[in-house]
Amino acid sequence: MARILWLNWSGGGNLPPSLGIARVLTERGHELAFAGRPEMVPRVKTAGFRAIEITQAYAQVDRYPQGLPLTRPACYLTSPAVEEEVRSIVAAEAPDLILIDAMFPAALAHAGEFGRPSAVLVHTFVFRQLDMWRKVIGNFDNMRQRAGFPGLPPLDALWQPRERIISTSLAAFDAAPLAGWEMVRHAGPVLEDEKFAVPRPLPWPSVDPTPLVMVSFSTMFEQRNADKMQRTLDALAEFQVHVVATTAGIVAPSELAVPNNAVVLDYAAHDPIMKRAALVVTHGGHGTAMRALRHGVPMILIPGLAGDQPFVAAAMQEFGAGLALPGDASVEAIRAAAQQILSTPSFKQNARERAKALAGVDGAANAADEVESLLGVVPSRGDTDARRQCVA
How far is CA 54 from the centre of its chain? Predict the structure, then answer.
């Protein structure tokens, strides 16, 4: 079978679905390796895949604009030192196919030189926010140019020449496709848990009728925001609810003043909590939003730094399955939104209606089918109704 190299950006919403797709490809007999920044390596190894560290990830970071939350990511994603190392890794690995994260311009800029089929992986909407994607890549390139390096191509020139653009979202949830973007395929969400996300016992029995609220913001250290977590806990403290907050280790529970109705966990599998939840308060990450929808749970969405989060938040509000608040939403605003959702049945009804579109969708298998199509492999599964509603 094929040797596949994944040039990866290990963002909080990027790596877990990548690992899910890799799992399916490996189960089908392919050999897969991830190449990425040092922070990626232990997570990929823990998942059971070969990891190649890009050692030059931050070699030129001192030349990038300092004091910004995304200085280090911008260096990794765009610097010439990383470009050169990526080319060396591709030459050494000699893969049959290359998968490249949509946010990795330093790799995408050279995909045409590799002489192998390649696909772009987008772990959220494409068409709802295409202009946002252009802006994000442009901003990263601007930081590269401020570091004194020549510019990279714009997004359209990086994405469109690839044989596939695979989105791990639903076509039904995205905006209408655009002419000239026929290479986009929607596989559906890939809601893969990493190994450290395990079920955790809660202090309240499962038969407790008290409504449960789950709070979860970004797992990416660059988006760490203890203040937002504290504002949310304070907003929910006066409700007759149980609150479970997960921090992914980027905010220590000891940093927070935890009210009596709440428990704060570093890591926990979200599915068992969402099965009990009446409300999810989140940052608008695509994966968390899709997981909440799959369980039919309405949301309050308070976006962080990632460019797609306001669009995901707006979509959930458009669906009637949640309320979108600004990133600096006050305790009072969060409390009012929680009161509105918990007291208005239509939010839960709308979330459950949207959950029907996700029923039976295997995004990891669908994405693996798209990858294999570039290798000339006929998908091993039947063309099910679930698959047909995803791919567009």
Answer: 21
Residue 314 burial class via C-beta count within 10 angstroms: exposed 0-12, middle 13-18, buried 19 and up: middle
Give this prediction's pTM.
Answer: 0.90
How does pLDDT run across 287-331, given as a tens digit for each residue?
999 999 999 999 999 998 767 889 999 999 999 999 999 989 999
Helix (H) or strand (E) holding 51: strand 50-53
The highest-level CATH class for domain 212-358 is alpha beta
Say which DSSP state 275 is in: T
* Residue 86 half-sphere exposure toward CB, CA atoms < 13 A: 30
Amino acid at 311: F
pLDDT at 218 exceeding the cut of 80: no
Residue 210 neighbours by CB distance under 10 Å: 12
* CATH 3.40.50.2000 domain locations along the chain: 3-189+361-390, 212-358
Maximum C-alpha span of the chain: 61
Alpha helix (H) ranges present in the chain? 15-27, 40-46, 71-78, 80-93, 105-108, 130-146, 155-159, 226-236, 270-274, 286-294, 309-318, 331-343, 345-358, 363-373, 385-390
- The three-class DSSP label of residue 363 is helix
Rounded to whole angstroms, what are the CA distances from 120 to 79, 116, 186, 189?
19, 13, 12, 16
pLDDT per position as a tens digit, 28-86 = 999 999 999 999 999 999 999 999 999 999 999 999 999 888 899 999 999 999 999 99
Query: How far apart (Å, rounded) are the C-alpha atoms in residues 59 and 81?
Result: 7
Q: Which tokens belong to 268?
A: 């926990």
Distance CA 157, CA 155 (A): 5
Place of tokens 């009012």: 336
Between the two ends of the chain, the Cα-to-Cα distance in Å is 27
Q: How far apart are CA 136 and CA 6, in angstroms?
A: 21
Gap between the Cα atoms of 123 and 100, Å rounded: 12
Domain 3-189+361-390, CATH: 3.40.50.2000
- Burial class from Cβ neighbours inside 10 Å (0-12, 13-18, 19+) for residue 355 reads middle
**Neighbour order of strands in the sheet with 212-216:** 262-265, 242-246, 212-216, 277-282, 299-301, 322-324
